[in-house]
Amino acid sequence: MVRYVIRRILMLIGIVFIISVGSFYLIHLLPGNITTIIEGPGASPANQAKLYKLLGLDRPIYEQYFVWLGNVLHGNLGTSFISQESVASTIRAALPIDLEMIFISQVLAFAAAIPMAMRSARKPDGIIDRIFGAGSFTLLSVPPFIVIILLVLFISIKLGIPHTGVSTYVAFTSDWIANLESMALPAVTLAIGSFVVYFRVLRSDLIATLQEEFITMARSKGISQRRIMWRHAFRPSSVALLGAAGVNIGGLLAGGFVVQFLLAIPGLGYTLIAAINQNDYLLVQGIVFVVSVGVVLINFIFDFIINIVDPRISRE
Amino acid sequence: MSDAVHELLVVKDLSTTFTTMGGPLPAVSDVSFTLARNETIGIVGESGSGKTVLSRTIMGLQPRTNVTVTGSVLLNGNEMVGATESFKRALWGTEVAMVFQDPMTSLNPVMRVGKQIDESLRVRLGMSKQDAKTRAIELLELVGIPSPAQRYMAYPGQLSGGMRQRVVIAIALAGSPKLLMADEPTTGLDVTIQAQILNLLDDLKDRLKMSVVLVTHDLGVVATRTSRIVVMYAGRIVEIGSTRDVFSRHRMPYTRALLDSSPKVSNASHTRLVAIPGRPPNLLQLSAGCSFAPRCSFATDKCHKERPELQAADEPGHAFACWNPLPTTMEQQS
Known about the structure:
The complex is a heterodimer. By secondary structure, chain A is mainly alpha-helical. Chain A has helices at about 1-30, 35-40, 45-55, 60-75, 85-120, 125-140, 145-160, 175-210, 215-220, 225-235, 240-255, 255-265, 270-275, 280-310, 310-315. Chain A has 2 domains: about 15-75, no CATH class; about 90-315, MetI-like (MetI-like fold), CATH 1.10.3720.10. Chain B contains 12 helices and 12 strands. An 8-stranded mixed sheet of chain B has the order 6-7-8-3-9-10-12-11. Chain B has a 4-stranded antiparallel sheet with strand order 2-1-4-5. The chains are: A mainly alpha, B alpha/beta.
């Protein structure tokens, strides 16, 4: 187990290195001259050349990379040419919003998926399984932007829970009720997508596990159905669930911008779209780097959890 | 009712029918036998003869859907047929426990073996965490596992097949059951380990005053370890009697065929084993006659048309189901 973790950490370091190269090079892939963007179209070639030198762009690219990497390792992702704000502090302000949104959505998704999958798996093709199956399939086939519109209709307009936008967004620490109110819509939207996946994956794995001989064995001990489900069937059935959750949460971190943009939640996705529109290269670079590392870290953590849940994996 | 007092287990007219896509599948039909306290009975037959289904039905452990059970199973006076799951649950582990066939699949792969033993002790016997652990380690020692305190922490995947089967036995013994159902307890194991496990079961039976139902396809296994034998074919009892009678005075040609097909030490080297020709019948398409008739060299027209019922042989407690039984006068080879 220790060896496995060390090996995974070394791999993680390698992947983060590759990501850093990719994020750094991203700027150099973009067309156009950065000095034109900063100084405006009317700038004189002499000024442009001066700025070019000032930014260190005349130095070889690998040298630029190591300067950048050194700064990144010190937590310095540069200062935006557009807003003159530190990229790191912009990200630091936006990231907790993503994390909170993902956290709430996953709690909701698991809280619904696990008991429903257990209920379904108890009698596959029974009436309850069919209702749950049809329901989850319906949800699966509705795209998130439709879900959002329906949720705005029901939660915000019918139930009267106000939804706040970027300008009025409040942090959890300053007013948690207002914060949760504005989190309700995006979290529920994301939760629905996750729930459908979790429910279906866990249901089918539970059905397979419940056929296993060790479940009959557990039954023969005279323990309750509930205990058999939670203690014997759930853990060996949750490997695929955790794998799906790892990929899914990574995806939400990287791809939550549709929901954020539609609902005006100032998370990383929203900030990224704004940065792209403003040609804020350094901010784009910083967000891409942080999100990529985040996705890798999340998958690393889930791999680790899977190993604890099913000790057979790291033994092989 | 007097049976219920003297006998630990009374099985009467027990039938188990599965509902399948191809129609009703009679896995066990009209099985009756009794088992006294501290007695071991052997149930033998080929694969697919209904042994495993029979042992699970006796315990009430059949699947909950698509199965019909009729007849009666009195376990220490408790009727198991038609009993609710919660009624049976109260008996499982403490009155009757099962040693499962394949130790590779019958242990939970993601649960430490100690915890799997603990579970019965804590949930069923209400022991404290510490007491259960102490007792679980004692049980591991009882079934002959070296350094039991360390093995307590092991996952099933870290143990050998023989060790796992010992753990399975330890789990079955945890609730001190009066009846132990051993369903082919040695099938998945090496020959040397097989003997160890069987001797262990025999020894534990005497020490813990249990009755044992030993299900196997291997007559060698039951020869010295049972007082009586039930021979099953296509879900029915075709011969029943004391171990001695079944081995040396059997009347049913199937029993003879089964005996002939097991290797004997007395055979010369390179003796070709006699195989029973054909294969067990499809239980979905049973004929009206004797199920063994298509494979039987003594079969007559009657055998194909009419099913023989169990009839008493000369010896007490010995019965067989055959229209053309083997002669009694001839003392047969053991």
